[in-house]
UniProtKB/TrEMBL annotation:
InterPro entries: MATH/TRAF_dom, TNF_rcpt-assoc_TRAF_met, TRAF-like, TRAF1-6_MATH_dom, TRAF4_MATH, Znf_RING/FYVE/PHD, Znf_TRAF. It comes from the Eukaryota. This is TNF receptor-associated factor. Keywords: Cytoplasm, Metal-binding, Repeat, Zinc, Zinc-finger. GO terms for molecular function: signaling adaptor activity; zinc ion binding. The lineage of its organism: Eukaryota, Metazoa, Echinodermata, Eleutherozoa, Echinozoa. It comes from Strongylocentrotus purpuratus (Purple sea urchin). GO terms for cellular component: cytoplasm. Gene3D superfamilies: Apoptosis, Tumor Necrosis Factor Receptor Associated Protein 2, Chain A, Zinc/RING finger domain, C3HC4 (zinc finger).
Length: 401
C-alpha cells in the first residue's frame, strides 16, 4: 500500500510561488533540496531566503554582507554602509545654500562659511545679516556705512544716517545762520566762526531781544484782555461747580468760617458784577449745622454808568444730581433786594461789601438725603432776573447832548 502512495503524482510545495515541478511523491524530497523556490538559511545572517533570491540577498540585503564605499574605498558591513554614506567625508555633495557648487563633504563647511556666494554674512556697519552676493548692494544704502562729509571736515567719515544731523548741527565747515536770525540778525558763515560772532554781537542781539520781549508783552496783554472778556459770564447766571467738597467741608469743620468764593459773574457785558460765597460749615445762625450761601455786589468797571441801588430778584438753587431727572428735588431760595439795604448800594473800592443770603440754606443732615453732592461735586446755580431791561440801561442813556 505504501508503495502505491509513493507512486502518486504530486506538485512542489512551492507551486504557488512559481515552481512548476510535478512528479512521483518518492522524488519530492530530492527535488526540494534543489528547488529554486525552497527557503534556505543565509550563511552570513541566518535569514531564511528563497534559493533563487539568495544571491541578491547576499549582494544587496544581507546586513552582514561586505561592501566597499565607492568614495573612500573603506570596507563596511551591509548594516553600516548606509550610515557611512551619509557621513563619508569624500562623498561629493551639493552646497546646502543652493548655490550650485558640488564638493567633497570634508570641504563643504569651509565653502559655506567662506566661499559660498549665498552664505549669510553680517554687515560690519549695521550688523544685520545678508546673503553675501547682495551685501555690496546693501552697502550703497546701509544707514551706518561711513561716508565723507561734503564739506571735507574732520572727522572725514560719518555714518550715512547721521550726515544730515552732522551738517545741520555739528559740521564746523558748514554754513550756519545766527541763532538770532528769526529776530533780525543776518549773519551767515562757517559754524566754526559762529561763537566769535555771538561774542562780538552780544549787544546788538540783546537790543533785538528787548524789542521782541516788549512787543510780545503788548501782544500778551492784548490777548489776555480778549480772553478775559470772552470768558466772562455776562447773562446774569452762574452755575458754580464746587469740586473736592468733602475735603473743603472737613477743613471748614476744623477751622473758623472757611469761605468758598465763586468766580465773578455779570448781569450783562457792561452790567453789575456779582460774586457768591458758601460757608460749608455754616455762618452766623447756621454755624456748625448748615451750609450758608451769600451773594454780594462787587466793584465793577462800569458802576458809574449803572442805576443804584441794585434791585433785581436773585435766586439760589442747589441742584439734585439724581440720575433720573424726574426724581430730582432741587433746593431753591430767592429774594428781591430792598432799595434801602446797604448791601446793594454802589460798592466802594475801599470797602469790602458784606454779602446777603441764607445762613441756614440747607442743613448738613438734609444734604445727605439726596444727591446734592455726587462724585464729591456740588452744583449751585445763581440767577439774577434781568427781565426788566429798562432798569439795566445806564442812567440818562435816553438824553441827548
Amino acid at each position: 500500500m505504501s508503495g502505491d502512495i509513493q507512486m502518486l503524482m504530486v506538485r512542489c510545495h512551492f507551486y504557488k510561488d512559481g515552481c512548476r515541478w510535478t512528479d512521483q511523491l518518492m522524488t519530492l524530497q530530492a527535488h526540494l533540496e534543489s528547488c529554486q523556490y525552497n527557503m534556505v538559511a543565509c550563511k552570513e545572517c541566518s535569514a531564511m531566503v528563497a534559493r533563487n533570491h539568495l544571491k541578491d540577498h547576499l549582494d544587496i540585503d544581507c546586513p552582514r554582507r561586505s561592501e566597499t564605499c565607492e568614495y573612500c574605498g573603506s570596507e563596511f558591513t551591509g548594516s553600516k554602509i548606509d550610515t557611512h554614506l551619509g557621513k563619508c567625508q569624500l562623498e561629493v555633495v551639493f552646497c546646502e545654500n543652493k548655490c550650485g557648487a558640488k564638493l567633497q563633504r570634508r570641504f563643504i563647511n569651509h565653502h559655506m562659511l567662506n566661499e559660498c556666494a549665498k552664505r549669510s554674512i553680517p554687515c560690519k556697519y549695521c550688523h544685520k545679516e545678508f546673503v553675501y552676493e547682495t551685501l555690496q548692494n546693501h552697502l550703497h544704502q546701509c544707514p551706518r556705512y561711513p561716508v565723507s562729509c561734503p564739506n571735507r571736515c574732520e572727522p572725514k567719515k560719518v555714518p550715512r544716517e547721521e550726515m544730515e544731523k552732522h551738517l545741520t548741527e555739528a559740521c564746523p565747515s558748514a554754513l550756519a545762520c545766527c541763532p538770532y536770525k528769526q529776530h533780525g540778525c543776518k549773519h551767515k558763515g562757517p559754524r566754526m566762526s559762529l561763537e566769535r560772532h555771538l561774542d562780538e554781537s552780544m549787544k546788538s542781539h540783546l537790543t533785538m531781544m528787548c524789542s521782541i520781549v516788549s512787543s510780545q508783552q503788548k501782544t500778551i496783554e492784548h490777548l489776555q484782555g480778549q480772553l478775559d472778556t470772552m470768558s466772562l459770564n455776562t447773562d446774569g447766571q452762574l452755575l458754580w461747580r464746587i469740586t473736592d467738597y468733602a475735603e473743603k467741608f472737613s477743613k471748614a469743620k476744623n477751622e473758623e468760617e472757611v469761605e468758598l468764593v465763586s468766580p465773578p459773574f455779570f448781569t450783562g457785558r457792561y452790567g453789575y458784577k456779582l460774586q457768591v460765597s458758601i460757608f460749608p460749615s455754616g455762618n452766623g445762625s447756621g454755624e456748625g449745622e448748615h451750609v450758608s450761601v451769600y451773594i454780594r455786589v462787587t466793584n465793577g468797571d462800569f458802576d458809574s454808568l449803572l442805576r443804584w441801588p441794585f434791585t433785581f430778584p436773585i435766586s439760589f438753587t442747589l441742584l439734585d444730581q439724581n440720575e433720573d431727572p424726574n426724581k430730582r428735588m432741587h433746593i431753591k431760595e430767592s429774594f428781591t433786594p430792598d432799595p434801602t439795604w446797604k448791601n446793594f448800594q454802589r460798592p466802594s473800592k475801599d470797602v469790602h461789601v458784606l454779602g446777603y443770603g441764607y445762613p441756614t440754606f440747607v442743613s448738613h443732615n438734609f444734604l445727605k438725603t439726596r444727591d446734592y453732592v455726587k462724585d464729591d461735586v456740588m452744583f449751585l446755580r445763581v440767577r439774577v432776573d434781568c427781565s426788566n431791561s429798562q432798569s439795566i440801561k445806564i442812567k440818562n442813556d435816553s438824553q441827548s447832548s
